[in-house]
Amino acid sequence: MAMAAMVARGAYLICGAPRSNLERLRCVAMPCRIARGRSQGHEAARGPRFMLVSATRTVSALTLRAIFYAALFVVVVIVHLSLTGILRAQGWNSGASLFASGALVLGLVLLLVNFADWLRERAAARLEVLRMRQGLPGGPCCVVWKTSEANEHDDAMPWRLIGRMRARYPKLARRLGVEGVAVVEFEIGAGGVVKNAHCIYAWPSDVFFGAAREALLRARFEPKPDVHVRFGASYRMPFVFRIAGAARLAHGGRRAGPPRPIFAVAQKAFQRLRGLTAALGRR
């Protein structure tokens, strides 16, 4: 198992952990992209240890292919029986009706299979273009957050989050199985609205900074009780994007909720079903 570890502000980034026996994952080391912050004349205060953005794995290609062929089998049976019944009703004998309906069904199957292969090739080409455009690696990457820093960073920030932060996982990164880290520096203005959010560190792609920035712009903060806030001060918050099941790790940070909470129940049910399937497979 090829692994590449990289230390970045307490984050160990591990690439190439295999997910299944049928899929060999490539490890591509991407250069880190660091945006220089503006000179504030003071050091930015640190927020919580990190904000965890978690997502489930997408359905694998083998599962989608199995679903396609199962649906194709059902369609073939229904069409074959329907055509045979229609031809028998028109006065054809059993042998001729079975032969004619079988030939039509075979042509339909070949057409659907070739069309599915064409769609898959088009989707793979479009996916590769998007991957290169977003600067994502060609194989899954796992993030294991290891830090010895204390929780006193929470006390250094005079603002507290109102409610729960809602963050999305980048779609293409989730589909490719890529985890990432983004450190965002921002200011909090009047009304607890985040402004001037810019990237301090993002790995392996800037799409994770985009998702973190979007979550911060939607969030609202309020001053902590008996704490004097100073407008214009900047704060830093790390975001760790992880895919459930990619690495075994006890989470020590805060969790960001999904941008659409209505799908949270379906996501939990999918995780339980995946765990039950894995338990039955080990038996």
How are the secondary structure elements laid out?
Elements: E1 7-8, E2 11-15, E3 45-46, E4 51-55, H1 61-89, H2 94-134, E5 141-145, H3 153-156, E6 159-161, H4 171-176, E7 180-188, E8 194-203, H5 207-218, E9 221-223, E10 234-243, E11 254-256, H6 264-282
Parallel strand pairs: 3-10, 4-10, 4-11
Antiparallel strand pairs: 1-2, 2-5, 6-9, 7-8, 7-10
Helix pairs in contact: 1-2
Key features of this structure:
TolA/TonB C-terminal domain; 11 strands; six-stranded mixed β-sheet; disordered N terminus; 6 helices; three-stranded antiparallel β-sheet; elongated; alpha/beta; single chain; 283 residues
**What's the CATH superfamily, by name?**
TonB
Q: Uncertain spans, ≥5 residues at pLDDT below 50?
A: 1-43, 148-152
CATH class call: Alpha Beta
Find the count of extended strands (DSSP E, 2+ residues). 11
The CATH topology turns out to be TolA/TonB C-terminal domain
The structure class reads alpha/beta
The average pLDDT value, as a whole number, equals: 74
Number of H/I helices: 6
The percent of residues in helical segments reads 25-40%
Q: Please, how many domains?
A: 1
CATH structural architecture: 2-Layer Sandwich
Strand content: 15-25%
Q: Sketch the major β-sheet.
A: 6 strands, mixed
Report how far the terminal alpha carbons are from each other: 25 Å
User: What best-fitting shape do the alpha-carbon axes yield?
Assistant: elongated
Order of helices and strands: EEEEHHEHEHEEHEEEH
Return Rg in Å: 26 Å
Multimerization status: single chain
